[in-house]
Structures are given as C-alpha cells and as structure tokens.
Design brief:
54 residues; 2 helices; elongated
C-alpha cells in the first residue's frame, strides 16, 4: 500500500509539469496501482486468513 501511495504522489508531481494530455494517463496509472492492486492484495490476504481459521 505504501508503494501505491508513493506512485500516486509521483504521478501528481509529474502531472504538474506535463501537458494536460497526459493527465488522464497518469490518473489511470495512479488508480490501477492505488486501488486495484492494493485491493487485490488485501483481498488475497483476507482470504488466506479466513482459510486458516476454518
């Protein structure tokens, strides 16, 4: 999750210095790394924990 947050900050700083045409691309990259990948990791961790306690 820390990696996703750092990548979002990098995308934000980068978008401040680039043209607006790249903003949507940087937003997409930030969303994929901060929401989707961390959500998948948290779900896998939860499912492993539930499998142990059964």
């Amino acid at each position: 999750m820390l990696l996703g947050g750092l990548l979002c900050m990098v995308c934000f700083v980068t978008s401040c210095f680039l043209n607006t045409t790249f903003d949507f691309l940087l937003q997409t990259i930030a969303v994929v790394f901060s929401w989707l990948i961390t959500g998948i990791l948290l779900r896998n961790r939860y499912l492993k924990q539930q499998a142990i306690h059964v």
